Amino acid sequence: MIEYTEGIYKFHIYILTNKYRTTYYIGVTSNLKRRLQEHKESIELRKKSFVARYNLTDLVYIETFGWIQQALAREKELKAWRREKKQNLIRCYNPKIEALNSMFEK
Fold it and tell me: Residue 40 and which of 46, 47, 50, 94 are 20 to 30 A apart at CA?
């Protein structure tokens, strides 16, 4: 996990993908475990969210920041990147693009 700690709180940038690794979702949260559970529930309830529509269940990338401003700026930066650049970033951190969900399960 990449970590930038300066503040007293932790904010996470995360990337989710589906089992085929064809679609990516980038989000920010202060509670990653809770947020992953919310995404899982939206899929189970068949809500019309982006995550549910594309069945984005696998956490493949995480960055942690001490300040929300840094996290939001990084989220915006990553969302503007082309797909190939996002894939390269994920591969630097997670070479096999394996699901990291088990780090945050109960």
Answer: 94
- CATH code of the domain covering residue 54: 3.40.1440
48-60 pLDDT, tens per residue?
899 999 999 999 9
Domain count, the chain: 1
Tens digit of each residue's pLDDT (9 = 90 or more) over 55-86: 999 999 999 999 999 999 999 999 999 999 99
Q: Rounded distance, CA 98 to CA 69, Å?
A: 29
pTM: 0.91
Q: Which domain holds residue 24?
A: 2-104
**Count, residues in the chain:** 106
